[in-house]
UniProtKB/TrEMBL annotation:
InterPro entries: TRAP_alpha (IPR005595). This is Translocon-associated protein subunit alpha. It is found in: Endoplasmic reticulum membrane. It is a single-pass type I membrane protein. The gene is WBGene00204471. TRAP proteins are part of a complex whose function is to bind calcium to the ER membrane and thereby regulate the retention of ER resident proteins. May be involved in the recycling of the translocation apparatus after completion of the translocation process or may function as a membrane-bound chaperone facilitating folding of translocated proteins. It comes from Pristionchus pacificus (Parasitic nematode worm).
Amino acid sequence: MISSKLLLAIFGFALVFSAVRAEDAADGEVHEEDEIGGASKDAAVSFHFTYPIDANVNKEVFAGKPIKFLIGFKNGGEKDFTVKFAETSFRYHQDYNFHLQNFTAAQFNRKVGPKEEVTLDTSIPVFEQFSGRPLGLVVRLHYEDSDNQYFVHTAFNETITVADDDSNYNTETYFMYLVFAVIAVLLLMASRSYLEKVTRKHGMTKRAPVVEQGTTKTGEVDFEWIPRDVLNNKKSPKPASPKPKKAQNAE
């Protein structure tokens, strides 16, 4: 029979081995040697963010906004390659084996000849519930050669941070500004009403504007505008008598 000490030794070795395996799985990276087929030595893959453009430096994206990126594929060998699709997923940043979200694969089916290079454009959404959280972003490119040998190349495998987008006003901010504007209008109306009451109470009413009446007295006539020849002619001209019309001869 197996002694109890031997059983304890076997059990302890099993615990140590499982702990080492768990530590290797939680190192925060997806290793290409664990992928089916791995990457081809004749293919070169590059990755570049197009939105947000600063994500290439600070690895920061915005909640509620899409992530847009380019995948470059270069065939440096003598065989044709066919780029099948790109597989994208969000992983837990402390254990990349734990998937938070898997996206629909972006289908390409692009044939790349020897010494040729193509650029593939794709994007994924970022939901607002991921705001303020670090996420592991993994983008893997699937392709095969003319001999139907399958390859998987990890184009991107890093931790990104999801931040709030402050470029646009949200609904709460707009409603807050609207409430402040209404309160300001009500305060102005109340202040104006109060000032009017105070003015009436102290007799500070507006006086009617004085209209200038002129310098002439009532009953006097200004003859300056009448021509002098009319004033000198005291007698009014006699009206000319109408001339009698000649009677027309009756036919």
